[in-house]
Design goal:
The complex is a heterodimer of chains A (123) and B (373). Chain A is mainly α and 123 residues long. Chain A is 52% helix and 5% strand. Chain A folds into two domains: 60 residues, Helicase, Ruva Protein, domain 3, CATH 1.10.8; 52 residues, Ribosomal protein S13/S18, C-terminal domain (30s ribosomal protein s13, domain 2, Irregular), CATH 4.10.910.10. In chain A, strands 1-2 form a two-stranded antiparallel sheet. The longest helix of chain A is centred in the middle third of the chain and has 18 residues. In chain B, 37% of the residues lie in helices and 12% in strands. In chain B, β8 and β9 form a beta hairpin. Classes of the chains: A mainly alpha (123), B alpha/beta (373). Chains A and B meet through α2 of A and β5 and β8 of B.
């Protein structure tokens, strides 16, 4: 396992897939990172040379990921709540924010809402 | 029967021949269908067809010229035996003492398996591991011939020394590869050279790699492919024959650019069959540079990014069309499969006729229908 920026990345996976283990990096961003660093699509993390790992680390440092991203998300939600907006009220209530139905479903929002309320709206 | 230069005789047409072990051991993969067939019959056996004999004759004639005038491209329907013809031809000329530069699976160069890095100016991309593998294969294919050829780029050294330096990493692998190929082609006192590339269409399409802006990289932007594109664009090399086989089995290897080039060319071999996918000839007043009449919205060549960017067209291409099996050839194949326990049926005239009708003479369909029973 490669330990990078506080995250354990699985060695046996493709680099562009392994990078998705980082909070804030999805498949598309993972591919874009590989393109910028000229990492071939079928490269596994264990086959990455040392200088590429260094470049990868430097590039990831310039991005908003992990704790920085979580903090930013938390601040945005808290700002909505503090302003007293409708969206903030929905976050507080643990209900869907984007106009979905609540007569049925909405279980994800309810589960996340409980989670967010427990943590004081910090993610 | 083992395949060697003396096997190329009319009396052996239709017979199955085994590729020499020292040849097939240097071919890591002939293709999924051929590899499966070799595994099932427990030997690398292929049928010696009249089209293969004609191809060998064309290559022999081209290799004896003072200047290479054309590149032969083997075309045909999916599973018609293009790779088989290429393997038999390459083996034949290797046994005759020619210098053979062969690449059985060109698609692997651009499928994202090999590491790559941009050049300093960003105009091309290097694949050091691939260049090293190609150097190793050139040395393996021609163990003794390279030691007698002088290097163009490194004075006082032979091509074998340059190749060894490139493989060991003493010099950049791509520079060594380019030097080796150019030196071989420019050398005066040397045997004829055969450049044999399977999946030739992979050289004329976009690759699985992307640049820093996430745009797909075209195959001609890779340094290794550039070496072959330059050879095809210049031609004129002494005692050299170039042979490429198109692959229609893998959809990711398809090249609309090459397909369009080949469609316009008549076949140069007498055994060419009638192509089933000829477009209808419609006389219209205005045609574009490819003489294609379809509107841009549905014409794949217009939407082919490679066709827009690629300016270094091959100087001359000759199309060699591999026909489907004839009725007698289907009989020979079924008899061979029956002898080697691939087909568990009694081979009669009626069975052969039925199989020929069902498969329409396509070798791959004959094979697949035998193993599915």
């Amino acid at each position: 396992m490669l330990f990078l920026l506080g995250v354990n990345l699985p060695d046996d996976k493709l680099v562009r897939i392994a990078l998705t283990s980082i909070y804030g990096v999805g498949r598309r961003t993972g591919e874009t990172i590989c393109h910028k660093l000229s990492i071939h699509p079928q490269c596994r993390l264990r086959d990455l040379p040392e200088h590429k790992v260094t470049e990868l680390s430097q590039l990831l440092n310039t991005m908003t990921i992990e704790s920085d991203l979580r903090r930013e998300t938390e601040n945005r939600i808290r700002a909505l709540v503090d302003m007293g907006t409708y969206r903030g009220l929905r976050h507080q209530a643990g209900l869907p924010v984007h106009g979905q139905r609540t007569r049925s479903n909405a279980s994800s929002a309810r589960a996340n809402g409980r989670f967010l309320r427990a943590r004081g709206f910090s993610t | 029967m083992e395949w060697n230069p003396t096997t190329v005789a009319r009396k052996n047409l239709g017979r199955f021949v085994s590729l020499p072990q020292d040849f097939i051991s240097k071919v890591p993969a002939a293709g999924p269908n051929l590899d499966r067939q070799f595994k099932l019959v427990d030997k690398p056996a292929l049928m010696f067809r009249e089209s293969t004999a004609e191809l060998i004759h064309l290559i022999d004639k081209e290799g004896s010229k003072d200047a290479c005038s054309t590149a032969f491209v083997v075309d045909g329907a999916r599973g018609s035996g293009k790779t088989a013809s290429l393997l038999l031809t390459a083996s034949h000329f290797r046994s005759k003492g020619w210098v053979v530069i062969a690449a059985p699976r060109v698609s692997q160069w651009f499928s994202g398996i090999e590491p790559y890095e941009p050049s300093a100016d960003g105009s091309k991309y290097y694949q050091p591991d691939l260049a090293r593998k190609l150097l190793e294969s050139i040395v393996a294919w021609n163990p003794s011939a390279l030691e007698k050829l002088p290097s163009l780029g490194s004075s006082g050294q032979t091509v074998a020394n340059v190749a060894a330096s490139g493989i060991a990493g003493a010099v950049p692998a791509h520079d060594a590869f380019e030097d080796v190929v150019k030196s071989i082609l420019a050398a005066k006192d040397r045997p004829p050279v055969l450049i044999a590339l399977d999946q030739f269409n992979a050289l004329f399409r976009k690759t699985e790699y992307c640049n820093a802006k996430s745009q797909p990289i075209m195959s001609n932007e890779f340094a290794v492919a550039m070496v072959f594109h330059n050879i095809l664009a210049e031609l004129g090399q002494p005692k050299t024959a170039i042979l490429g086989a198109v692959d229609k089995t893998e959809s990711l290897v398809n090249s609309y650019y090459l397909q369009n080039l080949l469609q316009k060319l008549p076949a140069v071999n007498k055994t060419a069959g009638k192509a089933l996918d000829q477009p209808a000839v419609v006389d219209l007043a205005s045609r574009d540079e490819f003489e294609v009449i379809l509107p841009p919205s549905i014409n794949p060549v217009h939407n082919d990014a490679f066709a827009e960017q690629f300016k270094q067209t091959p100087k001359h291409i000759s199309r060699v069309h591999i026909p489907e099996y004839s009725h007698s050839e289907v009989g020979q194949v079924l008899h061979f499969y029956s002898q080697n326990n691939v087909l568990y049926k009694e081979v009669s005239d009626r069975l052969v006729a039925k199989w020929w009708m069902i498969s329409q003479g396509n070798p791959l369909d004959v094979f697949k229908s035998c193993i599915s029973l």
